[in-house]
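User: Predict the full complex structure for these chains.
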Amino acid sequence: MNKESIQNIWNFLGSRNLSVIIFIVSMTYSFILFMFALVVPTWWVNTIAKLVPFHILYMLFFLNITLCIIRWWPVIKSQCKLPANPQSKEETDKFKLKITLSAKSNAIQKIQEFLKTKGFQIYISEQTNKFLYSIKGRFSAMGTLLFHLSFLFLLFGVIINLLFRFEGTAILIEGQKFYGLRNQYKNISPSFLSSPPKTTFQVDKINPAFWEGKMLFTSLEAAIFQDMKITQENEIKKKENENESTTEKIIQETEIIQESNQETLRKLITLSTAEKIDEAMVTLTGFGYAPEFTLKNLNDEILIEHYLILNIFAPGSTDTYSIPTPLYKGGYDYPYTFFISFYADYAEKDGKPVSKSMDTNNIAYGLKIVRGSYPVFEGILKPNQWIEFDDLKLSFTDLKRWGNFRIVRAPGRIFIWLGLILMIAGLIYRLCFYRKEILFIEDDNGKLYLYGKFHYYQNLNKIWLENLAKKINEGLI
Amino acid sequence: MFFEQLFLFIAILLYFFAIFFAIKIKKAVYCRYILLTGILSQLTAIIIRWIDIGHPPIFGTYEAALQGSFFMALFILFSYKSIYEHFKAMVITALPLTILIIFYGLAFNTERIPLTISELNLWVDFHALFAWLAFGPLTLAFCLSAILLYKERKNGRIKNNLLSAILPQNDIIDELSFRYINFGFINHTIMFAMGCYYSSILQGTWWDWDPVESTSLITWLCIALYIHMRLFYNWKEKKAAWFMVFIFFTILISYWGLIYLPQGSTFHIFDLEYKGGHG
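Assistant: Here is the predicted structure of the two-chain assembly.
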């Protein structure tokens, strides 16, 4: 490949022709993704958007923008310059609009005042007083640069996120502490170089609110305590050394922070507001109920006592629970499956249990216990009500709520945010404050000429200039 | 509810009067005052609804129609101050569209519906506000492009005295359209930025290829392409006007067409029921 071919390729990559091609291909791709989004879930569409053709498009897009910036930078720079000698023929020829005025020569001083009020910068010939040059939006061409540079900021932010972004979800019940440990997450989607962020907090209360008791959330918020730094290190070490059960449904340890000074660091997080906690942004994305499951023998010795994280929301939905192996005690074997449903506002309708509303006015549990495939109990259980089956006693002694917390650390967000701000600023500066130049020249015969040069809207500005000329001629300025 | 509908009805009536005055009366000032009164009446209806429901009325098709039509009427009114004498042309072409949008909104549920959690955020309010601030000028740009195409079709031989009196020259229409597009583009970009930021809070990601995002991106790309074609490839007047018609088609889909998408395909909240029970 000779030098000329390389130069041609280089020119094409930084050309407006390629920009147009990229626009059209981008539109087509967006349309394809739009069609996909109608029939498949969003995560699938996102996967399609990460396929090779899309990556080629993204690469071409950023290459084109970068090369365009490099290629057109001298032009932008020249567009920001002031003319060295505005009254010269060479410069006046560049002004496309020219009007001959009938006003007298002393009009220049008045015009100067008028243009100043309109935000023009004035340059007037001190010696001869024969011309006036005024300009507004001198650097507006920089807006184009800012707008296109913003895409590079966005790209940088995206790359940083690709490398260092961490997203995880953790299910935590009221009172539970979160230490940011890997095994506390239910799901994680780390990037190449990311590790879980240092984030510690304790969930205090989770409060959902429903519209007229119906299945329509009007509020879902979690109150959390953030100040756990004093004990944080010890707690983490303690946690790391513990050989914990990894079962998803069991929370064995729930501690409530009692110190009064913690109240000052109580924060509210909701579904629609992310809260920065240490290194990560935390959002509450969902909730459910966690009843306390207590199993005793007939001598009232507690065999099992812990909170179950169950998917029993909305009321009436059923989830199952089987006692996992690590909890077997004293050689006992518990071959039971518990089918649990929850009624927040219990009532009976046609002999069947229903929930009148979403609010927890009258809690009841629908419980079915199966040993192997043999049912040993089926009925409705109120909180703290005990039932006996085989040689065991069971009750739901407490009820808490669990929340699904999304923990995100995205170091690229600042660049993305900056990119978006630059984009808007660049557009506003370029399109709203575009460059306008007005030139008044008085020739040797005392005749006045009005020139106008505008980056946009030549015809509209011609009308504006004619109006200006009219006002000057009529002595209104 | 009664007063809201009453003021809205008065606004519609006044908009009709404004169109009538624009056609029949030579002086635009009367038309302007009638339009201004109509806008104030619609604003009163919006405020009444806002007080009644306790949040800015920007959710659901009815409320979207209230906002969209309000901003359109407002931009038509602003065109009066312009020295380019296109106010009457805007009243005659864009104001019927404004009325049409209100009637379209009235076909949907006008009852009070509480906000879901994802809608309870100032970012959403401003996201929607800028969406309608983009919709207004872009629709006016479409109307101007339609006028231009109409004039081109008649090949400059518009015999109707009324039209020849109120329609600006083609080059003026063309540049006015471009100016509205530029303003719409800025607002569309701000809307995008706010939506992306809120998505990062709500979904944890800045971009999700949701159908609404995809169609809005198509619109944004189209406008960006329009600006490039215009500035660097000299696409003006007829070519640019046809392109604007295409852009308006994408705007229609992204602003009004998404309620017809399969349920659950977007996390953006739209009405899913007509009053008449159609899907």
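Chain A touches chain B through 54 residues (CB under 8 Å).
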